Amino acid sequence: MNAVDGSDHYNKTSDGKWHPQPPPSLLTIILDTNPHAWALLSSTLPLSVAIANLLVFINAHLAFNNSNKVAIIASHTQRAEFLYPIPSQGDLVQANGSTHNGAQHGLDGNEAPTADDANHYRPFRHIQTTLLSAISKLYKATTPESLTPTTSIAGALTLALTYINKQSIALSSTTSSKTNADPLVVPSDPNSVQPATLNPRILILSVSGDLAHQYIPIMNTIFACQRLTIPIDICKIAGDSVFLQQASDATHGTYIALTHPRGLLQYFMLGFLPDQSSRKYLVSPTAVGVDFRAACFCHRKVVDVGFVCSICLSIFCSPPEGAECLTCGTHLRLGEYGGKPAVLAKRKKKRKKGTDE
Amino acid sequence: MAESDDEYVQDISDDEVEAHQVTRGAGAGSRATGQGSRGAGWEVTRTWENVVEGADGTISSTVEGLLEAGKRKRLLKDTTPLQRGIIRHLLLVLDLSTAMSEKDLRPTRYLLTLRYTKAFITEFFEQNPISQLGIIGMRDGLALTLSPLSGNPNDHISNIHKLHEQEPKGQPSLQNALDMARAALFHAPTHTTREVLILFGSLLSSDPGDIHATISALVSSHITVTIIGLAAQVAICLTLATRTNSSLPPSQTYNVALNEAHYRDLLMRATTPPTTPHSTAHDSGIKSSLLMMGFPSRIVDPSPTLCACHSRPTRGGYLCSRCSSKVCSLPTQCPACGLTLILSTHLARSYHHLFPLRNWREVSWARASRPGQRVCFGCQTLFPERPASVRLQSTSGGQSHDRMSLATSRSQPQPPKAAHTNSANKDGVSESGRYECETCERFFCIDCDVFAHEVVHNCPGCQSREGLLGSVTRNVRGETEVLVEGVAG
Ligand SMILES: [Zn+2]
Ligand SMILES: [Zn+2]
Ligand SMILES: [Zn+2]
Ligand SMILES: [Zn+2]
Ligand SMILES: [Zn+2]
Ligand SMILES: [Zn+2]
């Protein structure tokens, strides 16, 4: 297509070789929609302003490469759900089961009841109307009882990963000519090789903290992202979360805690717009120190020194009562603790001199 | 796999049967060593016979069903949470004898083993980040320490890399290697596993003494030995594997690789922490204990300071949570106060073994046609609509499929037209293309099913549903919360 307007010479690099189109990037944005947190921010950065900035950022991302894609997931107080793409009415009455490409909804979504604005690029407008209506629907469905200071990041991350996985499969099946099956490199997990064709990344717009009760599912998603080399970028507007810092560090994402929330758009454009392939050539902002503390399984307390069951690796903030692991029920040896210095001496002896049989 | 071995007893070719006064494999050969047509014939599975024309006269639906069955088959496994030895001490024993220069595994057994070993080391430390690995070689009747017990994958990989410059030579000695492994594992703490994994290419073992005495010593030291054979089943290996793993069937502890991919699968299977059943946990010598660990935070100093581990000036590092000494990398032990320092992400790698995601069940057309869920909850893909041809069958047989086990649906008489749906059902494929999580009752597509169970180990629905957030995926966690409440109240 580019050959028509002669723009394909831009793909020629200094070494004189022709390079194919860069792979499409899939930007998955997780928007923390906790009403409490946004209410606290209303004097500096109201949600409406943040969403307006976000839309500009999304448009910039889509304009980079015409095969770029975007998905937006709301991490609400007690649930996570897709804001974009969502199946349109047109899709739901369709009776065929062919694979639908999420980002294409923008092109065939002519049924949008809004007035056609000739000055608005149609995919941009489609995302805008879908996102705004989905958010207002989400807030209308929120009852005062469901308001908690937390947000379901784990669910949103899991949804983001399943969506990315599906999109990668859809993309690799259309370009399957390149994936010749080499029996020698059969990976134990077929999913680990697929995202190479798609350039996925996750951006979390976080306004609330207190995620300790979702510790295990969050860690599962971080580990999955690590295996699939999907960076998790964190844009921390308010609140504090040790686990999000760990997520971006483990997946080589960008972590930015905003000092001036009003400049959200600038943070977006300068910090989060480059995709994985461009980041190799840029110095991206990274968090200097990373908080690697864990949450205990018994009280969901964040701890920096914990007691770990050797059978199941559950973390406890103090030796469990009755010396029985609360997770796996194993009776843990009493002699191993009973005062920190005693534990210390025991550990040293075990590693250095071997152990008692 | 063991069942298919018996037919090929006669196939041990003469060049493998070398004359020596050695512990010889008297067992059945599992594989023809020649590359001729004789060895290839029995591997053929008649896949074309499974293809049945669908109602519309094409085979596309059946082919898709078969693909889906393949994905699903790997998935349907026992999800009962088991105790696993997550802190492991494993010694990998490589055969470096002349038998390894055979070319039946491409390019040679030796080169393939080296390549797979490197992949194994990486994957082992991915899955078992706080475990220790050591590598022993068997060459010229001797046992050699190729790489001492350590927790650093890069050391092991560079040591394996050096082997590329050498050639396999002489005969292997299982006894010498096992004695060396036993000595190396003697100091392993009692709360860890003690494992030996042998990659054995020969059909014999040239030993200085009685190997059965060594096996008895291994049993009394609670060391388990698993073996992957490259040539054929050898009697002494079977004895060794059975005697040191009294609670496990031999099919889990001694296998012979059929081809390159199978070899890799067998090797990668060993990266999953071994199960330690409740009843035998005590007998197997693993004593559970409570370990104190620190979760340090990373710092970057404005100017370089000395690290406690190497006394080198560095800027970045981790501060011990107890004594604030600076160390370069994790996991490690604080050089000053001895506290085990670890990243919480290291521990988290094992959590999916503890809280496995339950298998999702197939959804019948009758259940699928309930209103509400027309797209996959995980990826927003539209589900296929019920084809008109299935309508009749699903109203007669489909209702009873609902909430029923696979075994019952298999035994049910089906109209002949539904032959392909029926055969697909046996493989755990859902006729409606939907899979349902029993906890949150959301429908998912096959891709999300595979992905959620194999990679992310979370249910997207349970994690996103109101009221379910706190109680995580497993009932084990439910018990935990009950326990905690009991303690508090
Ligand atoms: Zn606690
Ligand atoms: Zn435990
Ligand atoms: Zn150091
Ligand atoms: Zn210390
Ligand atoms: Zn799906
Ligand atoms: Zn669920």
Automatic annotation (TrEMBL), chain A:
The keyword Zinc applies. GO terms for cellular component: transcription factor TFIIH core complex; transcription factor TFIIH holo complex. GO terms for biological process: nucleotide-excision repair; regulation of DNA-templated transcription. The gene is TFB4. Belongs to the TFB4 family. It comes from the Eukaryota. This is General transcription and DNA repair factor IIH subunit TFB4. Component of the 7-subunit TFIIH core complex composed of XPB/SSL2, XPD/RAD3, SSL1, TFB1, TFB2, TFB4 and TFB5, which is active in NER. The core complex associates with the 3-subunit CTD-kinase module TFIIK composed of CCL1, KIN28 and TFB3 to form the 10-subunit holoenzyme (holo-TFIIH) active in transcription. The chain crosses the membrane at residues 37-58.
From TrEMBL, chain B:
It comes from the Eukaryota. Residues 23-35 have a biased composition (Low complexity). Keywords: DNA damage, DNA repair, Metal-binding, Nucleus, Transcription, Transcription regulation, Zinc, Zinc-finger. Transmembrane segments: none annotated. One of its GO terms (molecular function) is zinc ion binding. It is found in: Nucleus. One of its GO terms (cellular component) is transcription factor TFIIH core complex. GO terms for biological process: DNA-templated transcription; nucleotide-excision repair; regulation of transcription by RNA polymerase II. A zinc finger (C4-type) spans 320-337. Residues 89-270 form the VWFA domain. Gene3D superfamilies: von Willebrand factor, type A domain (3.40.50.410), Zinc/RING finger domain, C3HC4 (zinc finger) (3.30.40.10). This is General transcription and DNA repair factor IIH. The lineage of its organism: Eukaryota, Fungi, Dikarya, Ascomycota, Pezizomycotina.
